[in-house]
Amino acid sequence: MASIKNLKKDINYTLGDIIEECYVAEMLNPKNDSKKTEAIIDEAIEVFDVLIEKIHAKNVENKKAHYKAISAELEAKATGLVKKINKL
After folding, report:
1. Containing structural domain, residue 17
2. What is each CA distance from 23 to 14, 26, 31, 42, 64, in whole angstroms?
3. What is the 3-state secondary structure (H, E, C) of the chain?
4. What pLDDT, in 10s, does the model give residues 7-57?
5. How many domains are contained in the chain?
6. Residues 6+ apart with CB under 8 A from 71
């Protein structure tokens, strides 16, 4: 990983794209229940808050491993959210 700044950008862009995809799904399928997409958006925002909070944690012994774990968690959570969007 190059820097913390890039990790923050990755989190922001990835989760922002997921939220945008929820809005696209709503526009393409106006008859579907919008509560499902709203729940996915809320979950994406919650994931964003949790990951940013983990980045700002001060009591970390091995920073490199900590940030790699955050990056892996981002990938796992984003994959799960995309699967939920695809089920809509």
Report:
1. 4-87
2. 15, 5, 13, 13, 35
3. CCCHHHHHHHHHHHHHHHHHHHHHHHHHCCCCCHHHHHHHHHHHHHHHHHHHHHHCCCCCCCHHHHHHHHHHHHHHHHHHHHHHHHHC
4. 999 999 999 999 999 999 889 888 887 888 999 999 999 999 999 999 998
5. 1
6. 1, 7, 10
Q: What is the pLDDT of residue 60?
A: 86
Hey, what are 3's tokens?
């820097």
| Two tokens, residue 34 | 């919008």
Which pLDDT score is estimated for 70? 93
Q: Which of 5, 6, 11 is nearest to 77 (CA)?
A: 11
